[in-house]
Design a protein that fits this description.
The complex is a heterodimer. Chain A contains 15 helices and 30 strands. By secondary structure, chain A is of the alpha+beta class. Among the domains of chain A are: 132 residues, ATPase, nucleotide binding domain (Nucleotidyltransferase, domain 5, 2-Layer Sandwich); 113 residues, Ribosomal Protein L22, Chain A (Alpha-Beta Complex); 159 residues, Glucose Oxidase, domain 1 (3-Layer(bba) Sandwich), CATH 3.50.30. In chain A, a hairpin with a 2-residue loop joins strand 2 and strand 3. In chain B, a hairpin with a 3-residue loop joins strand 3 and strand 4. Classes of the chains: A alpha+beta, B alpha/beta.
Chain lengths: 604, 122
């Protein structure tokens, strides 16, 4: 009888399986899991291996001196990276519009007149139609007083634009009510002495005049040519509760396409060159045409090109190779919409722009696992060998999930790449690696919600949402309500929160919970479900997904609270049994490779 | 445009020893900008916590503000007296006083609060 251990050094975790061997009988005793130390495939890994071993021995109640052999995985390093190219943008020249939603605008209706700073309004303007501009230096009481005075002297003040959050306060003090737009951040950019139209909708309604090209044409007496020009303005104002449009001689709102460069795909037999701004579909089609892919590169100076080069260099450093010899073998392109601040905007307006998310993957053939094995052997004083191929080991491990059988495929959804392998009825094994996994989902969530915060996006990806509806209760994203005895943190009140490990993290975004949930689920769908299908097509011996009976999901992203169900649901259309793995009936989707390494031990 | 006689509103109990027509008006303006009515009630008390707590329990909207000798408090009716939702010194910045009013109204409207500690009153 002797003790052996299988160790799987992964990108994120180092897992081990401790087993007792009696002749041909291999009996698993325990397992251990710790964070991987250093980048997978480097000497820094040894520390993590040690910690993982200790955990396994501890939980089995055995002593490390009894250990007779360590088997580590032979891993081909796979790394991925992600990038985003925005391909449209909206630019306001000469500040012709303000379109935002202050929480409390004043009054309601439409006002048209010449824009004049409140301090410059006097009797000489009597008889004129005026829009008053009130900066943060004028307090609301003085502003209201001045408007009342001037109105009494015959100046037709038709509306007001206010820098501070004072619209209701001003309006409440006016003898004659006017529409008022407030909270205009870049007040000093508003052109003065220009014809200005202002609209505030009643509560619960949205503006109808300024969001209609003919509405603007009516107010500004435009001809048909000029009306064509203002279409982007009215389009940008749709859905707002208040808006201001200013007629300036050269003012314009433009929507333009940003050149995002080309991506070159070199296949074994075919090559393709695709313009990134054409969207994700042509890229994915070209990728299929060029299969199998030799290398992919982009244009320098573009986000896509830069990202592809970065992946190449990181891998070159990792494996001690020339970057020229590193080939990028897969790409995942996804269409998305991202909120971007409108260039030249006055009130921090955002517009939804088209963008394309890209993930790349490189794979090197060799890694210094032999070196790590030697290092480990020295430190442990035990026999350390590099076991079988990672894909095979993962399958042997996955087959310990109750209810599975050959032909079986595993999909390992990690952070950087999605890996798949299949074992046929006859026991033949093949595998593939695809670009796009957990990190891409995080990037899509980050960009689509305009967070600019990767860690927060990661939390949104991993944990469910709730809305804090009172100081004492929340409504979960599924509609159920939970009450609390203690007052909830005022910072979370009326906000959407992430429920992370018993804590509530408030989100500072003005979007309904349904929208955030949809962004999260769409991102997972676009990456994991699409990649599950892509991967299975590649590894299936016939190229047909239906020929695989069982699909077991393993790896970190298989622990996600909704990804496995999404994949199960999608694959059921192909008549495939798919689900989260449960290694040896107890480990869940973890420990597949380490288990495979231990179980595949043969004496001799 | 004070609506002192309306029955429904945020109840504001203020100490008769202080002048609320000066800087403290910011509290009232914060509520007004959010379009929620309020009721001003003078009190002989000086303890902002006690006044705010009683104010919230007597308010039909369940929200009360107490303006004592030294501090201002905001309460929701279910909160215990020693745990006001917000509490600030009376000599705080105008923007903070205004935030107290705004937050009282937002508590009723179900809109997120202004947290002056995080945003500087914006």
């Amino acid at each position: 009888m002797k003790l052996i251990v299988g160790i799987d050094i992964g990108n994120a975790t180092t897992e081990s399986t401790l087993a007792e061997v009696n002749g041909r009988d291999i009996n698993v005793l325990s397992s251990g899991i710790v964070k991987t130390t250093g980048i997978k495939g480097t000497k820094e890994n040894v520390k993590g291996v040690f910690a993982s071993l200790q955990k396994a021995f501890q939980s089995a109640g055995r002593d490390m001196s009894e250990l007779s052999m360590v088997r580590i995985n032979e891993a081909a390093p796979v790394i991925g990276d992600v990038a985003m190219e925005t391909i449209t943008e909206t630019i306001i020249t000469e500040s012709t519009m303000i379109g935002h939603n202050p929480t409390t605008p004043g009054g309601a209706g439409i006002g048209v007149g010449i824009s004049v700073l409140i301090e410059n309004i006097d009797e000489r303007l009597s008889g004129e139609d005026i829009i008053a501009l009130i900066s943060k230096d004028t307090d609301f009481q003085n502003a209201a007083k001045k408007i009342n005075e001037m109105t009494a002297r015959g100046v037709n003040i038709k509306g007001a634009v206010v820098q501070k959050d004072d619209a209701v306060l001003i309006n409440n003090r006016l003898n004659k009510k006017i529409p008022i737009v407030d909270e205009v951040l870049y007040f000093e950019k508003i052109p003065i002495n220009m014809l200005t139209a202002l609209e505030v909708a009643e509560k619960g309604k949205v503006i109808s005049m300024l969001s209609n090209p003919y509405g603007i044409a009516t107010l500004f007496k435009l001809n048909s040519e000029e009306t064509k020009m203002i279409v982007p303005i009215s389009r940008a104002l749709i859905g707002n509760r208040s808006a201001v449009v200013i007629k300036t001689p050269k003012g314009d709102v433009k929507s333009r396409i940003i050149p995002a460069g080309k991506i070159h795909i070199a296949g074994m037999s075919k090559n393709r060159e695709i313009e990134v701004d054409k969207g994700a579909e042509p890229i994915m089609e070209a990728l299929e045409i060029c299969f199998p892919v030799n290398d992919i590169w982009g244009e320098t100076g573009t986000n896509a090109g830069g990202m592809l080069e970065k992946v190449r260099i990181v891998m070159a450093q990792l494996t001690d190779q020339d970057p020229k010899d590193i080939k990028i073998q897969d790409l995942l392109a996804v269409n998305t919409f991202v909120p971007k601040k409108v260039k030249g905007g006055i009130a921090e307006e955002f517009s939804m722009e088209n963008a394309i998310g890209l993930a790349a993957m490189v794979k090197a053939d060799r890694l210094q696992m032999e070196r790590i094995a030697l290092d480990l052997q020295e430190k442990l004083g035990k026999n350390v060998v590099v076991g079988g191929v990672e894909a095979e080991m993962a399958i042997i491990g996955a087959l310990t999930t109750p209810g599975t059988n050959k032909p079986l495929a595993i999909i390992d959804m990690g952070a950087g790449s999605t890996d798949a392998s299949v074992i046929t009825r006859e026991g033949r094994i093949s595998s593939c690696h695809l670009a796009g996994a957990g990190n891409m989902v995080t990037m899509l969530i980050d960009k689509e919600l305009g967070l600019e915060n990767f860690d927060l996006a990661e939390d949104i990806k991993k944990y469910p949402l709730a809305k804090v509806e009172s100081l004492f209760h929340i409504r979960h994203e599924d509609g159920s309500v939970e009450f609390f005895e203690e007052t909830l943190d005022p910072r979370t009140f009326a906000r959407v929160v992430i429920l992370k490990e018993g804590k509530m993290i408030p989100l500072d975004i003005d979007e309904p919970i349904e929208k955030i949930k949809r962004v999260r689920r769409d991102a997972k769908e676009k990456v994991f479900v699409v990649n599950a299908i892509r991967a299975l097509k590649k590894v299936s011996p016939s190229g047909n997904i239906r020929d695989i009976d069982h699909v077991v999901l393993v790896g970190g992203s298989a622990l996600d609270f909704e990804v496995p169900q999404m994949v199960t649901d999608k694959l059921s259309y192909y008549g495939v049994v798919a689900g989260r793995g449960n290694i040896r009936g107890i480990e869940g989707p973890r420990n597949a490779v380490a288990t495979g390494l231990a179980l595949s031990y043969e004496e001799g | 445009m004070r609506r002192e006689k309306e029955e429904i509103g945020i109840n504001i109990f203020y100490s008769s020893k202080i002048d609320i027509s000066g800087k403290l008006s910011n509290i009232l303006w914060g509520i007004e900008e959010e379009e929620i009515p309020y009721i001003l009630i003078q009190s002989e008390d000086i303890d902002a916590k006690k006044m705010g707590s009683i104010a919230s329990k007597s308010s039909k909207l369940g929200v009360g503000i107490g303006i004592g000798e030294k501090e201002v408090t905001l309460y929701q009716e279910k909160l215990e007296m020693d745990k006001p939702l917000f509490r600030y010194d009376l000599d705080s910045d105008e923007s903070i006083l205004r935030a107290v009013g705004v937050n009282g109204a937002r508590l009723i409207k179900g809109n997120p609060f202004i947290i002056p500690e995080m945003t500087g009153g914006k």
